[in-house]
Design a protein that fits this description.
Layout (H helix, E strand, L loop, with lengths): L17 H5 L33 E7 L2 H12 L3 H10 L6 H9 L5 E4 L4 H7 L3 H13 L7 E3 L12 H8 L3 E3 L9 E9 L3 H12 L4 E9 L2
Parallel strand pairs: 1-6, 2-5, 5-6
Antiparallel strand pairs: 3-4
Helix pairs in contact: 2-3, 3-6
The structure holds zinc ion (ZN) (2 copies).
The site of one zinc ion has 7 residues, from helix 1.
Amino acid sequence: MFPTSCAGCGALGGELCSNCFLQLKQIPRFTCPYCFNFSPGGLTHTHCKTPFCLDGAQSLIQYNKIAKKIIQRTKYSLAYQTLSVVLSQIPPTWYRSIIDFTLRLNPQPHLLAIPLHPKRLAKRGFNQADIVANHLAHLTKLKATHLLVRDKNTSPQALVPSKQARRENIQNAFLFINTNGTIPQTIILIDDVYTSGATAKEAARVLKMNGVQQVFLYTFSHGL
Ligand SMILES: [Zn+2]
Ligand SMILES: [Zn+2]
């Protein structure tokens, strides 16, 4: 076994040293996922809504250099524990907003980790969105559901240059599958990073076309 090193600076001792941990920043204020202007709770403004749109989005931390390194190490070095340990080290108060939000929803929402294509999942061995979903399920006691499968092996969104190209890249990437008959009224999509939100918006469209009424997004980090 190699000794654990900090995902941020490489110092030996743990997944993230205290110096790098201090560089993680909570999202100061939430924005509408369509116009990116301020919106309480990250809800989509009424005037920004379209049929089958995402109803709101919240994230835990800002996507800065350290957040990027945590995600990259988790994904590309197959270090499941890096993201998992960081999630559990983040103070409970940083989760207050999403916990309060989910608990106010009635009926209770189901959590849905944005799926990876089966080929990519097989290669990586885990879906990093599941790590975030598992942590939120642990904090909220909400159920996780699997209503989507990734049908198209898309290029990683981070490598697609423009907003328009990202939308096209992800279009029709998801298939709706419902094995247990009842469709949850409200879904909270979970992912690791949120930039333009194109992936979550496409997932929301497919879920709503199949009868889900409200779809929100929660991610580990958010950066534009
Ligand atoms: Zn460090
Ligand atoms: Zn808006």
